[in-house]
Amino acid sequence: MIRASDDPGPPVTPAAARTPSRRAVVIGTGGSLGYAWAIAALSTWQQATGIDARDADVVVGTSAGSIIASALASGVAVDDLVDHLSNPRPRSSGDADVRPRRHGARGGLPPMPRMGPGSVRLLGRIARAPRRFPPLAVASALLPVGRADTSGVVKLVSSFAPEAWPRPPSAPELRIIATDYDTGARVPFGRPGAPPASPGDAASASCAVPGWFAPVRIDGRRYVDGGVCSATSADLLLGADMPPIDEALVLVPLARRGRIHLTGAGAAADGLFRGIVGRRSAREIARLRTAGVCVTAHAPGPEDRAAMGWNVMDARKQAEVLHTALRTTAAWWSRRDRDDQASEATGD
What we know:
The chain is of the alpha/beta class. The protein is 35% helix and 12% strand. The protein has helices spanning 31-49, 64-73, 78-86, 120-128, 135-142, 151-158, 199-206, 267-290, 302-308, 318-333, 344-347; strands at residues 2-3, 23-27, 58-62, 173-180, 185-189, 216-218, 221-225, 247-251, 294-298.
């Protein structure tokens, strides 16, 4: 574990034989709409580069990104994820959905949370050493415990991922990032020594947004969204438990590229939050580049954010965001000046 301060489901299509590409794919937190944006960005990146994301040596996923990461590690093709969002099949009572189930949620809003702060223990730790914790950890501890549950994530991921954690050589190294809700520690599930969990349970914990979803218990401890510590945890690629990486694709659905004026109750908070996410992600990417890793990073541009609006949890807009991003990200990957604009991709 690392302290925060240190830092029906889609079908499985067989992937080509894995080769030692020394490549990582990192997919950050993003809510329901960031999930759609990241799938589109992965699809167009594959088309632009001719690389199958399933052939990565390492896949790291946080929150919504953990669902995509689990899918890639389990052999699900990105095109199948696009098709699953574009053409949702009629559901029977036993089918999994692409969105976490939200008891009592209406119109993209959470059900009424419980009373009181979500983690008194974490607040105590923050009070004793406030500089050791990022602002999002403070906010998450203060937020009340959510009432929605992430059982839909468990169903979805379990529909394509094995119960046992996928391991090389038949699969990439998979890391799913969550936050210990009582210590503020960043926990990369899948790392040697991490609490035992299935990909479905780990993704469920990684998607438990504080104040919206109830914390997820694994091995006796409470976990919430890994984005509390870091939106991407891209810096974990430099860990001793990881194979050497030459190249990394880092998608940051909750950062921003360029500026846009949004309206609505949460517009100001959206801009502030994306700025925080972008700056932290930019620092992690800088660390990778300093270590010699060639990083390709991308975040939603103005047109993507206009389609998303300020509420990235409003799954009713998933199809619109997906189709917008299929166009905007394809244009981005084709830009000759893309590398010159790399700083915009996370923390302008």
